[in-house]
Design brief:
- By secondary structure, the protein is of the alpha+beta class.
- The protein folds into 2 domains: 71 residues, Orthogonal Bundle (Arc Repressor Mutant, subunit A), CATH 1.10.10; 160 residues, 3-Layer(aba) Sandwich (Trna Endonuclease, Chain: A, domain 1).
- 35% of the residues lie in helices and 21% in strands.
- The protein has a 6-stranded mixed β-sheet, sandwiched between helices.
Length: 232
């Protein structure tokens, strides 16, 4: 039985979402890092939802996994920022032949960034379910009394009328507008912009907003295909 099958099987048998520690115990693995890696990979595929919530196993507030479709449209909100409204995101990229989302889909980029933040000491308090197009700040986290708001964009496949690079420029502009909105709403928060790494359109546009970077400081979180995230 594959690791992914064991992981989803444990979630199927559970009475609710489970954290990596409880999944490790239930499955009989020796390391929670294994559960984290498998869960993140399944998140990329869209098979499970990784979010902040209460674990059904230990009843603690942690990053938990649940099968997609069980709590569609729900978000975890533990901040006054929960009413913040973000613009709707265009339809994300997917592989029509398999039905799986491409690695650069917004939800996969978001999952990679959530994992990165959790591993670098941030406590993630809100993760919007991008698959249901729920509204709000995509990711909110806290560390050392500092709150972080992150807007996340994927990369488009384009349409019959619009090529990917043109649509990508629109998505990038939306992210920059989010930065302006967030800074206008809250002067005390840290701001992040999450994007898939390796796309020329985004990489070329990033230096052109140096003035905004300086006047309304924010961090770029670049997520790669293997799930690694670099900060800039």
């Amino acid at each position: 039985m594959s690791n992914q099958t064991q992981f989803t099987g444990a979630l199927t048998a559970a009475s609710g979402p489970l954290c990596d520690d409880c999944l490790t115990t239930v499955i009989g693995w020796h390391s929670r890092q294994q559960a984290n890696a498998v869960g993140t990979k399944l998140g990329y595929k869209g098979a499970v939802l990784r979010r902040r919530g209460t674990c059904a196993g230990c009843d603690r507030d942690k990053i938990v996994s649940e099968l997609r479709g069980e709590r569609a449209g729900r978000t975890t909100e533990a901040s006054p920022a929960k009413s913040e409204t973000a613009p709707a995101t265009p339809v994300a990229a997917s592989d029509k032949s398999t039905g799986e989302r491409a690695w650069y889909w917004e939800g996969h980029v978001q999952a990679a960034i959530v994992g990165h933040l959790s591993s670098t000491g941030w406590r993630v308090t809100q993760v919007i379910d991008t698959a249901s197009k729920a509204q709000g700040v995509d990711v909110i986290a806290e560390k050392n009394s500092q709150e972080l708001w992150v807007t996340v964009k994927g990369y488009p496949k384009g349409t019959s009328a619009t090529n990917p690079s043109t649509q990508g420029r629109h998505w990038f502009s939306q992210a920059m507008f989010d930065v302006v909105r967030y800074r206008t709403k809250r002067s005390d928060i840290a701001i992040g912009v999450g994007l898939p790494d390796g796309f020329t359109t985004y990489l070329n546009l990033a230096p052109t907003v140096a003035w905004l970077h300086a006047s309304a400081p924010f961090v770029f979180y670049w997520a790669s295909e293997d799930g690694a995230v670099r900060e800039e």
